[in-house]
Amino acid sequence: MSAENANSPVPTGSYPLAAGTAGLAAVSAKQRMKSRTKPAKAMIDRYKWYEVAGLYLGIAVFLFFVLAPFIEGFLVSLKPLSQLFSTPYSFIPKVWSFDAYINMWTSVPMLGMHIFNSFFISSIVTLIVVIIVVPAAYAFARFNFAGAGVLLGLFLAVNMFSGAVLLIPLFRLMRSLGLLNTYFAMIVPGAAFLIPSSIWLLRTYMMRIPRELDEAAWVDGASRIYTLRRVILPLAMPGIVVVAIMTFIGAYAQQFIFALTFNSKTEFMPLPIGLFAFFGKQEVVWNELMAASFVGILPVMVVIVFLQRYLVAGLTAGAVKQ
Amino acid sequence: MTSTRSATLFAFALLAPALIYITVIVAYPLFDTVLLSFTNASLKQTYDFVGWTNYLRIFGAGNFTDVIIRTFVWTFFSVSIKMIIGMCGAVLLNAAIPGQTLFRVLTMPPWIVPMAIGIFMWGWMYNGQFGMISGLLQNFGIVNGPVAWLAYGNTAFWATIITDVWIGVPMVTIYFLAAMQSIPKDLYEAAWTDGAGRAYRFRRITLPLMVPAIITMSLLSLIATFNSFDIIWILTQGGPSGSTTTMIIDTYKTAIGSRKYGEGAARAVVICIFVSIFCLAYFRAVRRLQQGEAK
Fold first, then answer.
1. pLDDT digits (tens, 9 = 90+) for B237-250
2. Is B12 within 8 Å of A139 when comparing Cβ atoms?
3. B146 interaction partners in chain A (CB closer than 8 Å)
């Protein structure tokens, strides 16, 4: 792939489009502001001290709401069970204990497998979605065929129906395809509900690649497929990356209902379902559940820190009109 | 690029994989749901068409209308609170103060972490004897004695709403933030030059220009919330005594729990009708907003 990029007729790196997209508005606006405020902070952005205090207080309350379950979950994972089930309640552990992180491997024997399954399912879903979405997005971005608008609308409407509504026929479909209790029972329906929004996202991105480039390739005698492969694909790569990341996160975050209904084999269960079985027990070993949750989500948390720029881009692309 | 026929053929060739996939996995099951809703399908291999029986039964039983009303109340509060908190969050994160980028990153975890895992943590926080919410409220002397939030209909109803809000807030916040940043800066500078204060600028510039974003997000959020399943299923499974049973939960219980596929399909069809109405409202709103922009 990278070799092809190097041979592409348009120098990808120097092309301004490669760096920005509709959704990156948020990021670029921030950068713009930074450059403007560098020499002297603009007067309009200057706050009085009590305004700054109020802002930080507000942010503290807001972030407490957002992060409280994680903070509490983390502290619970460090409390020994005897302290957990004692009153009065104390937020900070009195005794710090890492036992939960050791015992969880025996309480949830397949924990490692569940974490792997979550990653595996999300990766395959992402692969399927990207392969299907790239040509489809190109078709919607470039060809004004009859019914394009209606078709795009129908695709988007798919997004509005949750998998929960279609569970019965999907269950029957999976059964007749022989996919029940396999990875594909979770992968196939999971991918379907991520395709529409990905098409929309990539279409918006591709529409910003100048048409003249296709036309120039066409005049030079390039076939349509060659144009897509050698002109559009390299230029759309940043957009495809955003779509892939969004799809992965979508597939990773939403693993529940299909896995709950279409698979009963422990060895194929993704993390949320593996832990849900644990959660449903009569006496939940909370500190181990929380420890297992944290170990399970840690890799993704690390990734977020590096990819947050793309996340904002993906979340807002196509949604905010400029 | 000019020969339209071959261009159309090529476009459809590009679309074929997506079209086939969606047809098999979404369109056909949707059609099958409608079909099944007129049958008495169950675990048995064979089933018969029974006409409107399923629909007459669910609407005749009385509790189905309760479920519909409950779903709308639940959705209404969840969406409204999400919008309000999301707007507050966007305003706070939009302020040009040190730490801005870090705060934005810290907003995202509920949206990125597998939903189910965030919900487990809420499950513990709602624990009556030893959970954080009951514990802290007791420590501060706000409530006397433990409150098991998920054990009573009323509190469970609100607890599930709050968890749903928690999951939806990051997306709403980031979306509103992006919309806020796409407002031209010169508008603020002009108003500022004329001596307009911060609150005035928010009321007279930010809010009016955010209306399209607010409408779009409300409708998208409405659809997502209406379909919300994981939160209620993990926290209460629709209980206690049905007080958190929304339409989705009700359908799942009927279809998957009791294996009444036909009746479950009829309930699912009712959901689809509501979702279609919301969907049309969304598309109309988007089109109208675009037209308004073009003027």
1. 887 888 888 889 98
2. yes
3. 87
Structure tokens at A12: 């990808």
Is B85 in contact with A145 (Cβ distance < 8 A)? Answer: no
Residues with Cβ within 8 Å of B114's Cβ and at least 6 positions away in sequence, in order, are A118, A252, A253, A254, A255, A256, A270, A271, A272, A296, A297
A80: in domain? no
Through-space distance between the first and last CA atoms of chain B, rounded to whole angstroms: 31
Q: Is B200 on the interface with A (CB under 8 A)?
A: no
Report how many Cβ contacts below 8 Å link chain A to chain B. Answer: 310
Predicted complex ipTM: 0.87
How far is A313 from chain B, CA to nearest CA, in Å? 9
Residues of B in contact with A216 (CB under 8 A): none
d(CA B232, CA B240): 11
The answer to whether residue A247 is domain-embedded is yes
B230–A contact, CB cutoff 8 A: yes
Distance in angstroms between the alpha carbons of the first and the last residue of chain A:
32
Q: Tell me if the bond preceding B240 is cis, omega within 30° of 0.
A: yes
Who has greater pLDDT, A66 or B292? A66
Residues spanned by the domain of A122? 110-280
pTM, two decimals, is 0.83
Q: What are phi and psi of B49, to 5 degrees?
A: -80, 135
Those of residues 108-137 in B touching chain A at CB distance below 8 A are 108-118, 120-125, 129-132, 134-136
Please classify residue B168 by burial: count the beta carbons closer than 10 Å to its beta carbon, then call 0-12 exposed, 13-18 middle and 19+ buried: buried
CATH number at residue A247: 1.10.3720.10
Token duo for residue B134? 């009951």
Decide if B213 touches A, using CB distance below 8 A: yes
Query: In the predicted model, is pLDDT for residue B162 greater than 70?
Result: yes
The confidence score (pLDDT) of residue B165 equals: 95
What is the pLDDT at residue B274? 92
Digit-coded pLDDT (tens) for B200-247? 888 888 888 888 889 888 988 998 899 888 899 988 888 788 888 888
Is B95 in the A-facing interface, judged by CB distances under 8 Å?
A: yes
All domains in chain B, ordered by first residue:
64-255 (1.10.3720.10)
Q: Which residue blocks in chain B are alpha helix, DSSP H?
A: 4-22, 28-36, 53-60, 63-94, 100-107, 109-112, 115-125, 132-139, 153-181, 185-193, 198-201, 207-226, 230-235, 247-252, 261-294
Q: Which residues contact A247 (CB under 8 A, 6 or more apart)?
A: A125, A126, A129, A130, A194, A198
Closest CA to B180 of B286, B294, B87: B87
Judge whether residue A253 has pLDDT over 90: no
Q: How many structural domains comprise chain A?
A: 1
Compare all CA atoms of chain A with the CA of B237 and give the residue at the minimum distance. Answer: A280
pLDDT digits (tens, 9 = 90+) for B23-72: 998 889 889 889 888 888 877 777 778 888 888 888 887 788 889 999 99
CB contact under 8 A, B18 and A271: no
